[in-house]
Amino acid sequence: MIIVLRPDATEKQVNHLVAKIKSLGLKPWVSKGVERTIIGVIGEEDIIRVQPLEVFPGVERVLQILKPYKLASRDFKKEDSVIDVGGGVKVGSKKLVVMAGPCSVESEKLLIDIARKVKKAGATVLRGGAFKPRTSPYAFQGLGVQGLKYLAQAKKETGLRIITELMDIRDLDTVLKYTDIIQIGARNMQNFNLLKEVGKTKRPVLLKRGMANTIKELLMSAEYVLSEGNFSVILCERGIRTFEDATRFTLDITAVPVIKNLSHLPVVVDPSHATGKWGLVGPCAKAGIAAGADGLIIEVHPKPEEAMSDGEQSLVPANFEKLMKEIEKIAEAIGRTL
Amino acid sequence: MIIVLRPDATEKQVNHLVAKIKSLGLKPWVSKGVERTIIGVIGEEDIIRVQPLEVFPGVERVLQILKPYKLASRDFKKEDSVIDVGGGVKVGSKKLVVMAGPCSVESEKLLIDIARKVKKAGATVLRGGAFKPRTSPYAFQGLGVQGLKYLAQAKKETGLRIITELMDIRDLDTVLKYTDIIQIGARNMQNFNLLKEVGKTKRPVLLKRGMANTIKELLMSAEYVLSEGNFSVILCERGIRTFEDATRFTLDITAVPVIKNLSHLPVVVDPSHATGKWGLVGPCAKAGIAAGADGLIIEVHPKPEEAMSDGEQSLVPANFEKLMKEIEKIAEAIGRTL
Amino acid sequence: MIIVLRPDATEKQVNHLVAKIKSLGLKPWVSKGVERTIIGVIGEEDIIRVQPLEVFPGVERVLQILKPYKLASRDFKKEDSVIDVGGGVKVGSKKLVVMAGPCSVESEKLLIDIARKVKKAGATVLRGGAFKPRTSPYAFQGLGVQGLKYLAQAKKETGLRIITELMDIRDLDTVLKYTDIIQIGARNMQNFNLLKEVGKTKRPVLLKRGMANTIKELLMSAEYVLSEGNFSVILCERGIRTFEDATRFTLDITAVPVIKNLSHLPVVVDPSHATGKWGLVGPCAKAGIAAGADGLIIEVHPKPEEAMSDGEQSLVPANFEKLMKEIEKIAEAIGRTL
Amino acid sequence: MIIVLRPDATEKQVNHLVAKIKSLGLKPWVSKGVERTIIGVIGEEDIIRVQPLEVFPGVERVLQILKPYKLASRDFKKEDSVIDVGGGVKVGSKKLVVMAGPCSVESEKLLIDIARKVKKAGATVLRGGAFKPRTSPYAFQGLGVQGLKYLAQAKKETGLRIITELMDIRDLDTVLKYTDIIQIGARNMQNFNLLKEVGKTKRPVLLKRGMANTIKELLMSAEYVLSEGNFSVILCERGIRTFEDATRFTLDITAVPVIKNLSHLPVVVDPSHATGKWGLVGPCAKAGIAAGADGLIIEVHPKPEEAMSDGEQSLVPANFEKLMKEIEKIAEAIGRTL
């Protein structure tokens, strides 16, 4: 922590800060520059991070030196984490993982049909929402528990692992019965109580970046899960809010290598939600893999015209299959496999 | 709903869309322009809004005509809603309402001290967090139920109404026992299940705008509460995420008149969270009132240096008192009272 | 300047940096913390600011302590600058300055008519574009020199001071003949050669904030003008680009007090461009004054339906007059005059 | 153009609009829906686009149907444009084009050394700034004409084509003497007079997207060049401003396929400026190619520690060479060549 003082800061103000720092068991060092005096703080930055130093008289700015997350940090764990989601599927290894399926679970028959098709194309995890966060209270809210049961049936028939979203703490036990990976959606990235609860389970978690959240905040939300003892966290870049309106969100492709630098956790890209348009899913999926992502999560629906949600961003199975072949080539080009 | 076709759209594609629209019980009209054919849809826009028309072959773009919210809309209710929060305090009338208090409830003594001071300065509602959403799992998370009890005590001693944040559905019944207004924080603006639950109570709700949410989305989240039968919703502008880093968020002051045009619900401004710096709270509070807000929610702490959260954006009571006098003058200038 | 090293930085890397700093005539001090070593640099920060220290091996991050602008800074000049634009009109004093007029100069008759009306309502500067920056090459591009002549005529008839935009260095001498204040538009805020050229004149400059520029960058662009010897710079907040699409731009009202803290230069608010809608101009104009702005620049047109540009954001003279009366009351409430 | 009326719009207001539309030689059609009347306008949308229809009484919103750019549009020209920049180098064909070199031209010796190295690695165009747009007036502003001469010398020695930035209309003739591609920087994307002037030349232009500009605005700026008769325009995605501060800008990778859909013009990606950090250049360059870009523009410097600008984002030649080999594999994977 570096405290930058105002040019007119008095000796008394400096001493007041020094006393405060010492009272916290930390070590201050004062450096007088040409234009500004600055105070460095040596010791556990966590102790002082929560102090409102900016309100101390004479303080101009406070600069943090250390990262506010620990367990999620590459400093804490040098080697890449590989998350075992069961059934031989591991996220974060040389082999890419593709999760695919409909936005919402709509019917058993349809789901199993999609499951078979995405499996054939190379996906190893089936996605499908049973509880849907919808902007409008009047939109389809998902099939609920019935949807979860269909997912279980699809797993039984295909052997695919299952990922589904948990929105409500009250549904945790139910969701745990049916899913291999718990998805925390973008709108819940800072639902801290929900994060703590999934942290208490040992089930793998896919944590989506909030649409207005920085990479640092994503890692701090991951820290909530990790600090409860659950180290099986997969991060997901799914687009952020910007002024550009040609797409639903702006895929922050650079987040992939940035996260890889800062953290040991694997990261997947969601080109369906990032773009909101099926015609853009392919280029963005390929870009995600080229940028170093460990996998993809893609919406697939055989009849997008009739999809109960997100039809406009769903690939039909034939296009998904074609894309998988292209991704396989990109994977090879960068020394990975699909 | 207007469907804009691609320049190369075929007759068959047009007919396919027309058939779909008719099958939904709606009325299509087709207009062939110089460069584009467009199809208008007459009837309940809600029915067609959830259809993924953009995936139909030949479609270039789909334009919504009607607002996706109903009950929150000024079209639904022409006159301003005035929310009675009890104790003679009404939000949305000519008289402004100022809610003030500490970020977190820290101790009974401190809280009651602040309560007395903000009351004396003219505040009629006491704010204070018992459950705190914190970016870091290692930061102070609030006193919980004990904090709620202190709020109740402060109410007893001062007569101020109470507002406190609800983060977790499991705490709803407890929070209802102690608060007059349920605050839904920015990070929970799209926690739709939480919105539904507070919608089922009849308790007034202060709904904060999410940091990356549009005004339209704020109104749709309000619609979640209203559609459950709770019409006592107060909206709150508290700053949005932008590229500007001189402040914590960017106060979207124009949201005040925009919301007033679109909706009948009252709107208050939170200059403390919007700016993140106590020295900017005054100018932004005054700007909020000048722009037409129905009130303010302001953080006040007698010793910001020792505050357990948000010290850097808290006013000391003397500055709050001074600000209230200035706000009174602005109120008069625009024909309102404090 | 603070250089934060990576946790694995070697002694050799530290020495390499220390040597570099010394070779620049600056003084390094090295501090070893629990998790990170940091190096502070004492001396002229300008010398080291341009060094790409982040590429030195072992460096994690570089933190700037000092502001990159000097002459525009409040540190350089404590008291508020008051810019004399002639004719007794001074921007930055207790008395507010309102600049008003059409977006584009369209005809002499119309311009003089508007000039008389805005003068009667209390404006002291007439705005009007002769050279118009238009997003589309097919849109009306302004009357050019003829427009400047009409402005001169309007000045002659009303005594109002003139402000008009300069887009092209080649037009500088011509524009100087007709205008009292040179406006640099948002799209030219970082047209550095243009800034240097207006810096070489002594004519007052109104510098608009770019739609994607930080306050810091605005002050650095002002520095371009100041460093050429022209200290008559008025800053203008006119809205920034954000994800919110209910308005054309998002008025960053907090920029007003932030600029007042950082700089001695006066600042005015442009509610017309910030909102893009005439119905929002009034609330935002009042908010701007309440937040501490030194003036306003507002578009006025008697027949917005026929305006050749920006009709949707222009006030009719009657509404402008009404607004001026409201602003007068706000001005009084905060101890200023109109 | 679709005009949406307010629910309370009167018959008289509708007639007033209808009359206006007819007076422009266009054809109105009125459609009365359940909640709103809307008026469609058939005919040249350009005529009505510049009309401020939103100020007409009774109008709620105006929706544009057609794109405001013509010549840049894929509707205007179906097949991809291939821009011949001389020396056998063509941008927009199956073969990718990589432009590489230092941020600023610093000395003849250094430039020629870099030129040889990037050529050996596979680049076919040499980049280098002689006129530099710098945020600070105190930063190195480029060597000017001397820099251009060094570029010419490097071309002579290596056969590489040259790209350099034009900032000032007054330098146009000089720059034309030395460069094969005129670069228009992000800060000048809406310097419309500069665009017109380069449009009057027939020299290829690389037009960078402004940091706060939409893809639509980029295409409208391209339209400025095209409408003057210069069809040799290469577009460049170089990152936009967002709230994320882990990188200098946010690379909008999806802009690549979006532009490919909307326009026939080729598009290249600039991973150096987009990220601002050399360690992120590789992943983003690969992502750009995987997403469908026609080429890259990359900063290369043998001693980034001593670079006079942008050292932190420059690759050393060895890393550039390594990256080129990786890009070659990605190119093959998607059916292109390097």
Please characterize this protein's 3D structure.
4 copies of one chain form a homotetramer. The first copy, chain A, is an alpha/beta fold. Chain A has 2 domains: about 60 residues, Alpha-Beta Plaits, CATH 3.30.70.1140; about 250 residues, Aldolase class I (TIM Barrel, Alpha-Beta Barrel), CATH 3.20.20.70. In chain A, the strands form 3 sheets. An 8-stranded parallel beta barrel of chain A has the order 7-8-9-10-11-12-13-14, surrounded by 7 helices. In chain A, helix 6 links the parallel strand 10 and strand 11. The radius of gyration of chain A is 23 Å and the shape is elongated. The two termini of chain A are about 45 Å apart. Chains B and D meet through strand 3 of B and strand 3 of D.
Shape of chain A: elongated
CATH topology of the largest domain in chain A: TIM Barrel
Count helical runs of chain A: 11
The quaternary state of the protein chains shown equals: homotetramer
The largest sheet of chain A, given as strand count, sense and whether it forms a barrel, is: 8 strands, parallel, barrel
Q: Supply the CATH architecture of the largest domain in chain A.
A: Alpha-Beta Barrel
Strand arrangement in the largest pleated sheet of chain A: 7-8-9-10-11-12-13-14
Instruction: Output the structural class of chain A.
Output: alpha/beta
Binned strand content of chain A:
15-25%
What is the number of independent domains of chain A? Answer: 2
Greatest interface and its participating residue counts: A-B, 52 and 52 residues
- The top-level CATH class of the largest domain in chain A is Alpha Beta
> In percent, how helical is the residue content of chain A?
25-40%
SSE run of chain A: EHEEHEEEEHEHEHEHEHEHEHHEH
Task: Please tally the β strands of chain A and state the result.
Answer: 14
